[in-house]
User: What shape does this take?
Amino acid sequence: MSEPNQPNNNPGPWNAPQGPGQQAPQGGPQSGSPNPGPPAGHPYPGPQGGPGYAGQTGQPQGYAYPGSPYGQMVPAEEPARPKQVNLAFWFLIASAVLGLISLPIAIAYMNSPEYLEYLETVSRDLGLEVDSASLSAAIASSSATSVVSGIIGLAVRVGLAFLVRAGFNWARIVITVFAVLSLFSLIGLFVTGPVVGVLTLAAVVATIAAIVLLYMKPSGEYFARKKAYRQAQKFGGYQA
Assistant: This one.
């Protein structure tokens, strides 16, 4: 004798009673039915459409990352150059021009009889035995050295002036070192003549004025923003 059918104590969509013409669902809800969510033990638990849940398309949806800096990137803007930096640039150029003007005047004075006599007097006062021929040779060698060093110094000063104007902080530091060293040129200021002495003094004053301007607050902020802008340019022109 067959036993009577046991009642089904687990009602649900998987065990719904079958009526005439109905078929039991195979493996899950039929197409078009609402998706209640993943079954228990699914590797990506979560509400339908939420992060990590594989929807009906079978593809995991993207995660949202609150506070991510990539969502806050803005195009980097080049900072405006303050008037202090522009004025410092022209002071540095003026210092270089004054040095260029004084160079041929100094060379001409060094090769004059007046300067030769001055050297002979200094040598005798120091108890040195020198002749005019030796002094003339020394003056010629010194003149050539002065021309080469003057041209190189002029090129370096002009180059640093443009680098400072472009916002490179290391160039500002180098200019500062040169300004300190230029103070030593005040020793024996008028040895090569009064005109060269006045031009040298004016060049030193212009350099010091440029340094003062470059260390004012607007200039310091400009160098900091310029550095941040260059770094942003390396990463596609965007900054946080």
User: Anything to note?
Assistant: Residues 79 and 225 are 6 Å apart (CA to CA).
